[in-house]
Amino acid sequence: HGGVRTDRGVAIVTQSSTMAISMTMQRRALPLAYIVTAGNQAQTSLAEIGATLLDDVRVTALGLHIEGVGDIAALEALAQKASALNKPIIALKVGRSDQARTATVSHTASLAGSDAGARAMLKRLGIALANSLPEFLEALKLLHITGPLASRRLVAMSCSGGEASLMADLAQDHNVQFPPLNALQKTNLRAALGPMVKLANPLDYHTYIWKYTAAMASAFSAMTTDETALGIVVSDFPRNDRCDASDWDCVLGAVTEAQKRTGIPFAVAASLPENMPEDIANRLISANIAPLCGLQEAIVAARIAAECGRIRPATQPILLPEPAKNVVTLNEADAKAKLAHLGIHIPQSAQANAIKDLAGSAAT
Predict the structure, then answer these.
(1) pLDDT category, 321, cuts 50, 70, 90?
(2) Contact assessment for residue 201 and residue 222, using Cβ atoms and an 8 Å cutoff
(3) Residues 17-50: tens digit of each pLDDT
(4) Closest C-alpha to 139, from 309, 311, 298, 21
(5) CA-to-CA dists, residue 167 to 28, 160, 308, angstroms
(6) Which of 21, 138, 196, 252 is 20 to 30 A from residue 9's alpha carbon, by CA?
(7) Integer Cα distance of 34 and 26 in angstroms
(8) Distance (Å, rounded) from C-alpha 233 to C-alpha 219?
(9) Rounded to the nearest 5°, which phi and psi values hold at 294?
(10) Is 265 left (phi over 0), alpha (psi -120 to 50) or beta?
(11) What is the per-residue pLDDT for 315?
(12) Is 105 a residue whose pLDDT tops 70?
């Protein structure tokens, strides 16, 4: 495995041992406290393992890779426990395609079941969903550093108009918001950036103030308001083996200072995952700033973190108590009639008592 000891970090439970090994090899600076494989859950459920890991005070968030949901009551108890501890859970649920469901059966003999049903259940339990492994890991990293976000209201800063445009388009695709700048933001930004920069959110701050750490910190601070959930500075760092990255120290210094001034959580996002070197990512984490690998992954991570800040497990249990013994189960025709009486739209139908009646109804 590629794991290293950490004072605190996230826990991941997966049904795939190969995926578990691969996740320990990540170079995204995600601090892994525990990674456990549950296999086919023949003896111990994924939810039971997760609940035990949450008891460790050093665990900040929990990630679940789910092939098939077995014990719904245990998963429900896990969600309630996580909510009480204020530790978010993210799930990577497979089984959206027929091929994935077939692979799941052959892999751990688990039934992936209805993807729509499973996703609705997880949402009801307050468990946010990622759709890919990179999104899963980046969201866990952001939650480890910032915790759940207060909202989906973001600000983004880049020294490239191209990157600012990409961020704006991604926000539209992934349901996060870049609110327009207010008068105070514009005044403070103009003071920091001068007259040549067009002010907007996402912001292209150009390179007029590059390497002037104090001015960059003032610009990054000016972009935020009390309602900002996360500030994202886009920066791709040079290759360590071919380039001198010392000119990018100003980014780290400015973001660190802006976070201190504002008290707003900040992240630094590289547009390409490979342009966030692991040593830079570790430096950012030591300053309590989230290093995010890839713009789409950064936006999705912010959306997931905001969902974790908003959703809570439903109080009504998913599994209702056993019905009383005197309850009568209606036949289909009577049940549909009662539903129609209550105003629920029911397709037109007729009851047939014999095969010949079916033929007559079909002809009609």
Answers:
(1) low
(2) no
(3) 999 999 999 999 999 999 999 887 778 889 999 9
(4) 298
(5) 21, 11, 22
(6) 252
(7) 14
(8) 11
(9) 105, 135
(10) beta
(11) 62
(12) no
